[in-house]
Amino acid sequence: MTVIDDRPADVGGVGTAPWRKEDAHLVTGQTTWTDNLAPVGTLHMAFVRSTMAHARIGSIDTSEAAGMPNVVGVFTGADFAEECPTLPCAWPVTPDMVHPAHPPIAIGKVRFAGDPVAVVVARDRASAVDAAETVLVDYEPLPAVVGMEQALTDEVVLHEDEGTNKAFFFSMPTGADIDETFAGADVVVKRRFIQQRLLPTPIEPRAVLCIPQAASGDFTIYSATQIPHILRTMLAVVTGMPEHKIRVIAPDVGGGFGAKLQVTGEEVIALLVAKRLGRPVKWTETRSETNLTMHHGRGQIQDIEVAATKDGKLLGLKVDLLADMGAYLMLVTPGVPILGAFMYPAIYKMDAYRFNCTGVFTTKTPTDAYRGAGRPEATFAIERIMDELADELDMDPMELRKLNWITHEEFPYEMVAGLTYDSGNYEAATARAMELFDYEGLRAEQAQRRADGDRIQLGIGISTFTEMCGLAPSRVLGQLDYGAGGWEAATVRMLPSGKVQVVTGSSPHGQGHETTLSQITSSALGVPFDDIEVLHGDTQVSPMGLDTYGSRSLVVGGIALQKAAGKVVDKARKLAAHLLEASEDDIEFADGTFSVKGSPDASKSIQELALAIFAAHDYPEDMEPDLTGHAIFDPENFSYPHGTHLCAVEIDTETGHTSIRTYVAVDDVGKVINPQIVEGQVHGGIAQGIAQALYEGVVYDDDGNLVTGTLVDYLVPAAPDLPSFTTDRTETPAANDLGVKGVGEAGTIASTPAVVNAVVDALRPYGVHDVEMPCTPERVWRAIQSGQEGGAQ
Amino acid sequence: MARITVTVDGTDYTDDVEPRTLLVHHLREALGLTGTNVGCDTSNCGACTVHVDGQSVKSCTMLAIQADGREVLTIQGLADTWDGEGSLHPLQQAFHEAHALQCGYCTPGMIMASLDLLAENPDPSDDEVRHGLEGNLCRCTGYQNIMKAVRAAAVQIRQGSTTSQEVPA
Fold first, then answer.
1. CATH (one of 3.30.230.10, 3.40.630.10, 3.30.365.10, 3.30.1490.190) for A374-468+640-788
2. For residues A224 and A254, what is the distance between their CA atoms, to the nearest angstrom?
């Protein structure tokens, strides 16, 4: 089967849209998802999980399971207590953060429904599942601690040795005195917003396969992970096993969205069981297990207060967060809300800012990064309260934004939260969005519908967002007490025949790295797109890397590649000068060919030079016979994509049903390598943001049971639930080698407030000032009813 | 154990299976046909969609023994049903061209569901495609490019051609 591409041969460089290299195997089912792999002799794991949110473990009777057909072993937490006392948390956000032990299988107590209490290992998966069902666990129930404010009373404490459910208190006052600023303000608007928990829901569930080589002590681990490099290091750290004996491979990975940015107990247990039994060990979760145990996203109570003059000039901002950690701190759990600290001031100028955040343990699934990680929450709160302030001041919400945003002449601009935004043009993106949206026309229609008392009311929502991504400058991460740096590695190898191998330390799971990085290489070396291969996702093939999350693969990894390719060109230029008997200064490089100035016939292509250096018959004395380029890039700043998203919703005021009529997104992600891939990232991001606004929300009952335990109960939007999006771009180059900005999270960050602002805007005549997410028909209907009774907040 | 014979992608397979074995597990684990993916355990996601006797079926909703004597088509056999010359099926080619997949995990099911949709409605509107695929979840694309791909493939299938077509507006 062949993929047909009958388009012009010049498609393949930066700024073009070659069809993706990744697709051929994905559209034909020739895939290597972790669950597809099973060497001969593979043993399968099934976990016994807590059915209670909070309980002491009395006894665990595994005797029946151990005697069942095909069962090879049954293990409990105590069996691994010495080998792995705790899973890692790499982000202690304060020096006094409470960091309780998190054993990969619970010991003594369970702290959320789904906490593993035993693992059954059998020769086939069905036998393991059958046997797991026979394990009898005697629980002594303890009260569940479901709400964050309830948890802070410490009446029931999850981690008794710590004596408190408060994980940390982080405070960041910056700029002018906050109390004086608020005291002197004409207007203060305060709101409480709820960021409901979300399930990241990559369509591929988690899976891990660990293959031991007993004689050498080597372990090869395949995992559905975003972070093969970090996972290898962390497995070594938490188990004490030698890092160089662990190889991690991320084969085809079916989406991550932050949820596969994790070091999970199941991965650790697969490694430890494989070590113990000397056989390959595999685990693939069911979707119900995903919902129950893959980390959740969001989960915050946001108290936000803005101070302004009566003319609408912003003066200061106070943010007080309660952030739900869930039962344990996982890899970057505490850091997620802290990433938001820098984003509440968004694109607006103000003199005073104070951010406080309290992290709280509850008897629920741990939270951690989910597409945007802290920044969607911040952007939601600031964009929502800008609309509330506009309402208070009786101003158009866009006019209020224009009055306060950084103008394009003011870049680079140092924000009150301490970041310096390198570039942006909010005016341009907004003007284009307003034009595509027909803002004035829709406002006129809205006025007409209001005047007519139309059953279908129209709402217009604005989100003029920015975000910080491209994680991240290592020194800044160090100042934030993050456990690692934020550089990325790339290598460019010229093969003797002139083909090119690129090795990247970033690790894709749908983003199209093979295509995008080939395009950068093609433009940098002047080598055809199809002559380039991109290798990734295997710690043996790509020994250095910090993987893929935080919209970093292009803005950190892509620039590392650009620098590595530049080193290849520098070496090749020296070789070309030698072979063409010219001075290096007289050598020109264009379209993959080195030529001598003024003598266009004297030339060597870079692909010819690759063969020449391989033969090594004739090369400069002060040069090694090698054209390889290797670079580590550590950025000096974050990346700040921005844009203006406008949403028009129609609300049936009798049923509360919301439908999106128009969605316009104008994003500025700087220079674009592949416009089709960028548009795809924006589409998918917007879909996930709309999902938070209208559809998705994790529900626990009062006893801490997960109610939304399957995809029957948790509404991941399908095609009919979403509109078509109108997308466009403005292009304000970033201050980096490629002029690029991150795009992976922008749509998700932007869209949630655009939609909810539209919902609230539609309902303002009914006295409604907020609708809690997800804005279901029931909630919208109730808001209308209580608003009409004068009871809405 | 029950003995069954299932024709999958044109090949007959005879196996003894446990009665509780789902068709998707039979395909993946007994036959090694891992092109069909499992994404959930409640028949919501549609990643495992195949065709049985020409109709799309979520292969997690069917027991292997129910497929006895029937013809199953998976993503791995789809291209062979087209021109017999090694080309991709127009749906596969259109998903590729329209960037209708990112991670690709939902793609086999999405394509097989789309095949059924186009068999019933050879010229669907965007809205008809959206509703026709409501049983299949994609977390990456936001579905817009899937709409484009299915409609572009519809043109090609109607014309019996694998040459690239402009995506209808």
1. 3.30.365.10
2. 7
The Cα–Cα gap between A542 and A540 comes to 6
Residues 6 or more apart whose Cβ sits within 8 Å of residue B125? none
3-state SS string over A127-159?
A: HHHHHHCCCEEEEEECCCCCCHHHHHCCCCCCC
Q: Which of B79, B138, B144 is facing A203, going by the closest CB pair? A: B138
Exposure string (b/e) for A134-164, b if CB count within 10 Å is 16 or more? Answer: bbebebeebebbbbbebbbeeeebbbeeeee
What are the boundaries of each domain within chain B?
A: 2-78, 79-159
The whole-angstrom distance between A5's CA and the closest CA on chain B is: 8
Size of chain B, expressed as the number of residues it contains: 169
Residues of chain B neighbouring A254 (CB-CB closer than 8 A): 37, 103-105
| Contact between B96 and A205 using a beta-carbon 8 Å cutoff | no
SS3 (DSSP) at A489: strand
* Tokens describing residue A164: 């408190």
Tell me the residue type at A240.
G
The minimal CB distance from B105 to the residues A255, A684, A710 is found for A255
The backbone region for B92, taken as left when phi is positive above 0, alpha when psi lies in -120 to 50, beta otherwise, is alpha
* CB burial string A436-445: b at 16+ within 10 A, e below: bbebeebeee
**Amino acid at site A594:** F
CB B142 to CB A679 under 8 A?
no
A374-468+640-788 and A487-633 in the same fold: yes
Kindly give, in sequence order, each residue whose CB lies less than 8 Å from that of residue A549, ignoring residues fewer than 6 positions away.
A226, A227, A256, A258, A261, A369, A373, A471
Pairing relationship of beta strands A314-326 and A352-361 according to DSSP bridges: parallel
Q: At what angle do helices A397-404 and A375-393 cross, to 10 degrees?
A: 110
Pairing of strands B11-17, B55-58: unpaired
For B141, the closest of A31, A680, A716 (CB atoms) is A680
Q: Which of A203, A288, A684 sits opposite B41 (nearest CB)?
A: A288
Structure tokens at A118: 């035993």
In chain A, domain spans: 34-142+205-253+260-293, 374-468+640-788, 487-633
Q: Which residue out of B140, B146, B163 would a mutagenesis test of the A interface target, given it has the greatest number of A Cβ atoms within 10 Å?
A: B140
Q: Which CATH architecture has domain B79-159?
A: Orthogonal Bundle (1.10)
Q: CATH second-level architecture of A34-142+205-253+260-293?
A: Alpha-Beta Complex (3.90)
Q: What is the CA radius of gyration of chain A?
A: 28
**CATH among 3.30.365.10, 3.40.630.190, 3.40.640.10, 3.40.50.970 for A487-633:** 3.30.365.10
Rounded to a whole number of angstroms, the distance from the CA of A213 to the nearest CA of chain B is 24
pLDDT, mean of each 10-residue run, chain A (793 residues): 62 92 98 97 98 98 98 98 97 97 98 98 97 98 98 98 98 95 98 98 98 95 98 98 98 98 98 98 98 98 98 98 98 97 98 98 98 98 98 98 98 96 97 97 98 98 97 93 95 98 98 98 97 98 96 97 98 98 96 94 96 97 97 97 98 98 98 97 98 98 98 98 98 96 97 98 97 98 86 44
pTM (global) more than 0.80: yes
Q: 3-state DSSP call for residue A509?
A: coil
Provide the H-helix boundaries in A253-298.
Answer: 265-277, 287-293
ipTM of the complex in this document: 0.96
Domains B2-78 and B79-159 fall in the same CATH topology: no
State the CATH class of domain B2-78. alpha beta
Burial of A123 (0-12, 13-18, 19+ CB in 10 A): middle
DSSP E strand boundaries for A217-262: 218-223, 246-249
